[in-house]
């Protein structure tokens, strides 16, 4: 979710693997959510809490699958702000994906992409207006 643009957020409650989540967000005209400031991070967390009723651990769009330790957002925006939890990202094998609300806490964690999680998609409303 690019800073300064209006956007809408969607959440998939049933959840999926990171690959499934990525494809589903694109199919819905967006991408897995990204954030670039504490305000955007808080917006995503607030949205999850509003919809789910608690701080459900969920996928957002960060991964370092291409180059270990180089985190990228799947929407192509600059990865300037991870807001990682203490001690993360750690370098365990295959922990290439990024979950927000790890253990329902205010904590961002890297974890295996083969886990299933609910996921948050973000869609630019500017994109919609041009349709
Ligand atoms: Ca971790």
What are the salient characteristics of this protein?
131 residues; alpha+beta; globular; four-stranded antiparallel β-sheet; single chain; binds calcium ion; 3 helices
What would you call the shape?
globular
> Would you list the SSEs in sequence order as H and E?
EHEHEEEEEH
Enumerate the distinct ligands: calcium ion
Helical run tally: 3
Helix/strand structural class = alpha+beta
Cα-atom Rg, whole angstroms? 14 Å
Low-confidence stretches: none
How many β-strand stretches?
Answer: 7
Distance between the termini: 19 Å
Briefly, what is this?
The protein is of the alpha+beta class and 131 residues long. It is 23% helix and 27% strand. It has three helices and seven strands, in the order βαβαβββββα.
Q: What features would you describe in this structure?
A:
- This protein has 131 residues and is an alpha+beta fold.
- It is 23% helix and 27% strand.
- The protein has a four-stranded antiparallel beta sheet, with helices on one face. Strands 1-7-2 form a three-stranded antiparallel beta sheet, with helices on both faces.
- The radius of gyration is 14 Å and the shape is globular.
- It starts with 6 loop residues before the first strand and ends with a helix.
- The mean pLDDT is 91.
- Bound molecules: calcium ion (CA).
- Calcium ion (CA) binds at residues 88, 90, 95, 109-111.
């Amino acid at each position: 979710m690019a800073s300064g643009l209006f956007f809408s957020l969607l959440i998939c409650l049933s959840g999926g693997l990171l690959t499934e989540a990525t494809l589903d967000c694109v199919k819905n005209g967006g991408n897995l959510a990204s954030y670039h400031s504490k305000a955007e991070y808080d917006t995503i967390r607030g949205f999850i809490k509003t919809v789910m009723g608690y701080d459900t651990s969920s996928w957002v769009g960060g991964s370092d699958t291409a180059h270990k330790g180089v985190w990228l957002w799947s929407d192509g925006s600059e990865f300037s702000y991870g807001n990682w939890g203490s001690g993360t990202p750690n370098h365990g094998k295959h922990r290439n994906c990024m979950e927000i609300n790890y253990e329902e806490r205010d904590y961002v964690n890297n974890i295996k992409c083969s886990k299933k999680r609910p996921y948050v998609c973000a869609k630019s409303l500017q994109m919609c207006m041009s349709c």
